[in-house]
Amino acid sequence: MKPFRILVVDENQDLLELIVKYLELCGWRASAANSQEDFWLQFERQRPHLILLDVTISGSGASSLLSELKSSSRFTDIPVIAMAAMGSIREKNLWIAAGCDRVLGKPFHLDELRRLIECFANNQNNERKTGGITMKKPTRHFAAVALLAVALSGCQAMTGRTAGQNVDDARISTAVQATLTSDKASNFTRIDVDTTNGVVYLNGTVQSAEQKARAEQLAGRVDGVKKVVNNLQLGKS
User: Fold this and answer.
1) Same domain for 118 and 171
2) Please, are residues 4 and 132 in contact by the beta-carbon 8 Å criterion?
3) Do 120 and 18 lie in a common domain?
């Protein structure tokens, strides 16, 4: 069975590599392009089933690529998902009108990205017997680094954060999530972890005050964590 192929376009090389690694962890085949020229080179090599396009590439790069893809009968059936920091419904509609099949607003969650791509992969599977596989739960914790990088990629211009800071925070979040999940004494499956400048935010629910305190303690032990903000709520499992 041929793998479902995705071409990812983003000028930020660090984040581009993380997105590609994440998609491969999901079971798909992913390739990377960081410019219009590189896009067409990779396109001819891979002939992707889906294009994941960051709309912030230089100048009118994204619009130009969309125009070329959607104006040619050879390419028009290849779906395009735009990654964009959405400011309004009107902005989203503009990208749809430009030729995108879907618009994924930043920031977004791991399951949201995975489910969206699975829709296209499953459609392709029904038509040509190809597709990606559903990611197992243990894999999600290690793939989280890619999600966090994607979510932060559209925010660098506004926050002044560098790609290095984004990647380091992503590493911390992944390590904290893995630490919590591997703790056999507790059930930490409903905890979300976010990190900004080394400050870890724990959100979600736990079963007791003891678990809430333990989660904070475990997170604080992870290398690079400067502070833990414990927003966990008590609730039923």
Assistant:
1) no
2) yes
3) yes
Give the separation between CA 37 and CA 93, rounded to whole angstroms.
27
Q: What is the pLDDT of residue 59?
A: 56
- Total-model pTM: 0.55
pLDDT in tens, 16-54: 887 888 888 888 999 999 888 888 899 988 889 999 988
| Domain annotation covers residue 78 | yes
Question: How many domains does the chain fold into?
Answer: 2
- Looking at the structure, tell me whether residues 23 and 110 fall in a common domain: yes
Angstrom distance (rounded) from CA 235 to CA 215: 15
- Cα 168 vs. chain centroid, distance in angstroms? 16
Q: First CA to last CA across the chain, in angstroms?
A: 39
pLDDT at 36: 83
Provide the domain limits for residue 228: 161-234
- Three-state SS annotation for the chain: CCCCEEEEECCCHHHHHHHHHHHHHCCCEEEEECCHHHHHHHHHHHCCCEEEEECCCCCCHHHHHHHHHHHCCCCCCCCEEEEECCCCHHHHHHHHHHCCCEEEECCCCHHHHHHHHHHHHHHHHHHHCCCCCCCCHHHHHHHHHHHHHHHHHCCHHHHCCCHHHHHHHHHHHHHHHHHHHCCCCCCCCCEEEEEECCEEEEEEEECCHHHHHHHHHHHHHCCCCCEEEECCEECCC
Here the CATH number for the domain that contains residue 229 is 3.30.1340.30
Residue 211 in any domain: the answer is yes
